[in-house]
Amino acid sequence: MAGMDIYTPIRINDRAEEAARLERERIRQGQEHEYKIPLAVDRARMPVKERETKEQREEEEGKLREAEELEIRHVLRKAQMQK
User: Is the pTM of this model over 0.70?
Assistant: First the structure.
């Protein structure tokens, strides 16, 4: 009987520690899952964002070329008028 008196509390403690360990692992996995979801969304959006950025850059470059061409035409007209 004395052996059972010693073993039972140890067994109860081991079960409590195992339950606490499992709970910590469950929480850790939940946190990892919550962390990975936004990363996956960001990765999915990346090609779209890259395409939008490229299109925006091309549009800005086109506007800049147009402005430069207008400036050149203006300078040429001004030079022709001064002749």
Answer: no
